Amino acid sequence: MNLEELKYPIGKFIRPEFVTKEIIDSAISEIENFPSLVKIEIQNLNEQDLRLRYRPEGWTITQVIHHCADSHINSYIRFKLALTENVPTIKPYEESLWAELSDNQLSPLVSLQLLETLHKRWVYLLKNLTEDDLNKEFIHPEKSERISLKENILIYSWHCRHHLAHIKQAKNLRFE
What we know:
With 176 residues, this protein is mainly α. 61% of the residues lie in helices and 5% in strands. It has 8 helices and 2 strands; from the N terminus they run αααααααββα. Helix 2 packs antiparallel against helix 6, helix 2 runs parallel beside helix 8 and helix 4 runs parallel beside helix 6. It is globular and about 45 Å long. The two termini are 16 Å apart.
């Protein structure tokens, strides 16, 4: 596998031309199931296994799980901002620097518990969005574009599948 395939085992996010209710419902279901799928993937891993990387110089399984907690917290807040403000500009963060902070030394089970609880609230919110809510937007200053909540659901469904694939890849390819 080349570096691009190792970075994006399921490919990069592709914005669909049309977004139906069925596509949204499926994406919400993927977000809902993500914590339990991560739990299944890591349940029998020891500390050495959790230090495996999905690609050379990539994050470890532990860092991937901590990153997902950080990223999904940020996304949840972005949803709430878009629902309560008029096209807010969100605050980006340096995910690679966040991955190096001391809280990433904790067991990934801490972030998994956080993901389980966060996803319960997030999915409840997502399942109760109206069509008007789904069309609300926020501005991502790094991308200089408006992102609708409808699109952000699809992005985070992809994000869940993307990082779940990283965990599986780390287990299979065993980069240290």
